[in-house]
């Protein structure tokens, strides 16, 4: 199979079809586009999510924390704890392990989450370090936000810029290859995008306003995430590609490597839907905290459509992320 997330149809056929036993306490189960599991604890719910870091070589301690915490935030709640499983190859040094944990500690402190456990192992089953993280959050049941809650007529928005995480990874891991073709200053600015990949703040704020759905944008980029939101709610969607904000550094790097920034891994971006009556409040709330938010489409009945320079095309499901074409 291709590198990256397993395709949607295989997930349905092979993975989801073999998850058959049910417990009544589980309120939200695995499905396309759903970021978290939710477990009932009467007045409260436990929100859980897990993710691996496999596509990056640098800053993986920080990425491991932010990626799973972002998932928790997509339910409109701040994460409170995270567990890390580190699988490292035999040539790993004590210094390299320490660096990863120092990165993870700083990232955890930045979003007020505690590293509450995990597992660390040296194994020849991997040829480079792999980290899997599991984050948890606690939320009042009545305040739950899920990816599948979009409604016809909702406004679709996104925070920040498409391709943030992928740009930072490429600029860091491929710096030597890109130098001479792209200026060192541009690459440094692109690497700094990695400092902006948390969506915890906007997730919590949007949850307080009362959005209908949220989905943090990871593999497959912003277009993949928007398709997944529509799929989760079993609805159509219309997206205006020309309104999607992209940083100039991302455009330059993607142009040089012939990859699509709209299908590039984009942690740091939160996609969300909101009823029109709450649109102004949501945008005011996010902008007051210095968070860029852009209106990019609507939830509709029927087709999933992408408009590019007034040309109408199908919004396709996510395929192999553009990152894996160059890393």
Automatic annotation (TrEMBL):
Domain PurM-like N-terminal: start-end pairs: 33-138
Domain PurM-like C-terminal span(s) in chain numbering: 151-304
GO BP, sorted A to Z: protein maturation
SUPFAM superfamilies according to UniProt: PurM C-terminal domain-like, PurM N-terminal domain-like
Record-linked Gene3D superfamilies: PurM-like C-terminal domain, PurM-like, N-terminal domain
Superkingdom assignment: Bacteria
Pfam families in alphabetical order: AIRS, AIRS_C
Classification via PANTHER family: HYDROGENASE EXPRESSION_FORMATION PROTEIN HYPE, HYDROGENASE ISOENZYMES FORMATION PROTEIN HYPE
Family to which the UniProt record says this protein belongs: Belongs to the HypE family.
Protein name, as recorded: AIR synthase related protein domain protein
Species annotation: Alkaliphilus metalliredigens (strain QYMF)
